[in-house]
């Protein structure tokens, strides 16, 4: 696979969620979204009652009575987002859509967490991502900043969320703590709030027992992402003794809150828009500054995307929304969460690796990674291909993948089994080898996974090697008369090269909804990330695993997203008056596109990556704190953007929850003030206008361009002189097709610099058909 007086008008915006039910069921779950509220700053209980009553009355006019309406409604969105979720018949939903106050009715899709779950926190300072600059030292004490996630909740006992040493909770905080623990309150001055939202999930799954009525994390994902964003300094953190160091989040002194919207998957469905929209509405009111959303679904038009709509309401109130790009890479057009008001994050590697190498009897050493327990003794063990260890009536294809119940214990017992990556979870392959009595497992990448290897805490001694080394291992098995080998004890190694490179799973552009907007925006560490974990679940999340650990590694854009959320929190602390768009620009324009070998960033197959993989590049937090210039955007700019992509007033209302927006005449999407520049089907010469705002010291910025092959680029004016902070200057980028021989994409860049700041924008171009 996120108010004062009640308005005289209700712009009814209906998001409806259809959840799978038994074949004979007639009623399904819908979200009825009522646009935006116009409450004042001090909303009263009476205001909220009026909202609820209006929802009931509207639905009662279709169902026949207020009693039936109250039975059908599962949520009221009554603070910033206006609407309700209800269980309705399809015909009823269709009739509601015809009501003159109703903007639209559309199906609400289930979404997924964006982690590889081992099923297929970086020490930021150690990895060279954040250094002890003066800005960082100032920002680290940003206790007034509140970072929250929409996820599987939180493990409150984790040291990453200890309240020791914190001052009073910020007065702006209006949230609550829904833990019900007889030992006393589990929230504190660090973990200042925790809520759960499960009614949308319940409408799909059926009646839930009381164990679901808690924000406690029983999956590990939510604790991992929240601590990555803003976990405390925790010395001595490791995973079963490997990778020992001080764990901390990107914004370690920020307060945190958890909004549990994801639940144990049923038919792959775990996070529902009804719950996500409710969580957004609540978080905005609670006073959150940054929302980290490590989940998503397939990209859909913004007017039909509950998460994009909820995020718009958040951004309108000054909340920064950061979301994961998805784990459907490396396929083109797979990126999700593509709205321009969302910071969309891909995943890349860091220079740390948990080495557990394969030593073959012939002397070959194959580099691997693992967090598994070591072999009982460092001696040579017999090796066997899983294909040759297959049970009777099992295909060679299923066996080599180590699918469940495919191995014969008589053939595998006491040996190291060599399996191929793909289809089932990596840890499930280890479980199958363990079931068959294997001494260990070597997991080899398929060609698609390339050089991306992931450290998992397998239940037996195991390691994961890349595609090239995997071919060597399988060739050795074919040619050696008595193949033997061993797996070395896992150790943390640093300075690995090349790094970073793009994770193969990280979803890629182009943006299938609005190709004019480059997505993802940025990439950040998302492979083998150590962070806090739930002790209510095993490190593999598998039923066969009974181990517990306070820290664990995870991989996915779920892990990269909170890195950016943490940095956004730091920027918010230093620059509380900056808009979400300015923060997004600062993060994007200061990113790097070269690895630690000073070569262009690569994909997992070591081929050169493009902005469709990394967006503006790999995040550099220190530089993001002081970007020099920003490309700013207002809510009105986003509304003009919706005009520019051809949205009608009805569709604009669906997204923004407003009654009317006057679209500018002759508006061009070319001039939408995005930090990246994408121009499609260029013919002849095209002019692009951008405006930059000085957020640093006055000075002179000079431009430099790198044009894609077949194009020429020029900037007018070439130099911008700023006299005071906050001053804005506009410029034109002139794009000319010189000799484009195809309509394939070309990539370049625009750079503004005053010799101490480097403000870089990626450029993506395609030529019109000759």
Automatic annotation (TrEMBL):
<keyword id="KW-0732">Signal</keyword>
<dbReference type="InterPro" id="IPR045051">
    <property type="entry name" value="SBT"/>
</dbReference>
<keyword id="KW-0645">Protease</keyword>
<comment type="similarity">
    <text>Belongs to the peptidase S8 family.</text>
</comment>
<dbReference type="Pfam" id="PF05922">
    <property type="entry name" value="Inhibitor_I9"/>
</dbReference>
<dbReference type="InterPro" id="IPR041469">
    <property type="entry name" value="Subtilisin-like_FN3"/>
</dbReference>
<dbReference type="InterPro" id="IPR046450">
    <property type="entry name" value="PA_dom_sf"/>
</dbReference>
<dbReference type="Pfam" id="PF00082">
    <property type="entry name" value="Peptidase_S8"/>
</dbReference>
<feature type="domain" description="Subtilisin-like protease fibronectin type-III">
    <location>
        <begin position="671"/>
        <end position="764"/>
    </location>
</feature>
<dbReference type="GO" id="GO:0006508">
    <property type="term" value="P:proteolysis"/>
</dbReference>
<dbReference type="InterPro" id="IPR010259">
    <property type="entry name" value="S8pro/Inhibitor_I9"/>
</dbReference>
<feature type="active site" description="Charge relay system">
    <location>
        <position position="151"/>
    </location>
</feature>
<feature type="domain" description="Inhibitor I9">
    <location>
        <begin position="29"/>
        <end position="114"/>
    </location>
</feature>
<dbReference type="Pfam" id="PF02225">
    <property type="entry name" value="PA"/>
</dbReference>
<dbReference type="GO" id="GO:0004252">
    <property type="term" value="F:serine-type endopeptidase activity"/>
</dbReference>
<feature type="domain" description="PA">
    <location>
        <begin position="405"/>
        <end position="470"/>
    </location>
</feature>
<keyword id="KW-0325">Glycoprotein</keyword>
<feature type="domain" description="Peptidase S8/S53">
    <location>
        <begin position="142"/>
        <end position="602"/>
    </location>
</feature>
<feature type="active site" description="Charge relay system">
    <location>
        <position position="221"/>
    </location>
</feature>
<protein>
    <submittedName>
        <fullName>Subtilisin-like protease SBT5.4</fullName>
    </submittedName>
</protein>
<feature type="active site" description="Charge relay system">
    <location>
        <position position="558"/>
    </location>
</feature>
<keyword id="KW-0720">Serine protease</keyword>
<dbReference type="InterPro" id="IPR037045">
    <property type="entry name" value="S8pro/Inhibitor_I9_sf"/>
</dbReference>
<dbReference type="Pfam" id="PF17766">
    <property type="entry name" value="fn3_6"/>
</dbReference>
<keyword id="KW-0378">Hydrolase</keyword>
<dbReference type="InterPro" id="IPR034197">
    <property type="entry name" value="Peptidases_S8_3"/>
</dbReference>
<dbReference type="InterPro" id="IPR023828">
    <property type="entry name" value="Peptidase_S8_Ser-AS"/>
</dbReference>
<dbReference type="InterPro" id="IPR036852">
    <property type="entry name" value="Peptidase_S8/S53_dom_sf"/>
</dbReference>
<feature type="signal peptide">
    <location>
        <begin position="1"/>
        <end position="25"/>
    </location>
</feature>
<dbReference type="InterPro" id="IPR003137">
    <property type="entry name" value="PA_domain"/>
</dbReference>
<dbReference type="InterPro" id="IPR015500">
    <property type="entry name" value="Peptidase_S8_subtilisin-rel"/>
</dbReference>
<dbReference type="InterPro" id="IPR000209">
    <property type="entry name" value="Peptidase_S8/S53_dom"/>
</dbReference>
